[in-house]
Design goal:
- The protein has 5 helices and no strands.
- It has helices spanning about 1-10, 15-45, 50-75, 85-115, 120-160.
- It has 2 domains: about 1-80; about 80-163.
- It is flat, with a radius of gyration of 22 Å.
- Helices cover about 85% and strands about 0% of the residues.
- It is mainly α and about 160 residues long.
- This is Integral inner membrane protein.
- It comes from Bacillus mojavensis.
- Keywords: Membrane, Transmembrane, Transmembrane helix.
């Protein structure tokens, strides 16, 4: 990755200030490309209702940018601040649970808006199962991230104490 960065870079010197400026320019280019992709999806996909094949590449590009940002931000600890105590861990898990339930409820409401209100018992059962599965999967993912963040902070503290 560093080799690719050096090839794309116009400045290969050791000046830290110039490298920071160049990195800022590259990040602005990435944000501009993401904004253009989002604009393309909104205009061609939503407003003009062009066929899906015409704007799917912009949607995939936008998804890749978002996924890459989330992976990098979570790996660096930006998305989830340090969790130092057991009490803070329980508070964060409770917060993740309520947010997961809210997102699952929104998914069910949007599904009912798209397909209409269910009229049979099995249709309601499907909506309930959608709620449970969506909320459960989302909560398990978020719980794993919180637990990982807690373990990292506990591991760092134990290394500091042993030093």
């Amino acid at each position: 990755m560093n080799n690719l960065h050096n090839r794309l870079s116009g400045v290969n010197g050791k000046n830290k200030r110039v490298k920071e400026k160049e990195q800022k320019i590259w990040s602005e280019i990435g944000m501009l490309a993401g904004a253009i992709a989002l604009l393309d999806v909104i205009i061609r996909g939503i407003m003009f209702e062009f066929p899906f094949k015409e704007w799917v590449a912009s949607l995939v590009f936008l998804f890749i940018i978002i996924l890459y940002y989330c992976i990098r931000a979570s790996a660096s600890g930006m998305l989830m601040p340090r969790i130092d105590t057991e009490k803070e861990l329980h508070k964060r898990v409770k917060q993740q649970f309520t947010e997961s339930i809210a997102v699952a409820f929104a998914v069910v409401v949007l599904t009912m808006y798209d397909r209409g209100i269910p009229h049979t018992f099995f249709a309601w059962l499907k909506m309930f199962l959608l709620f449970i599965v969506c909320g459960g999967v989302l909560f398990l993912l978020r719980f794993g991230i919180v637990k990982l963040s807690y373990r990292r902070s506990v591991k760092k503290e134990s290394k500091k104490k042993s030093s």
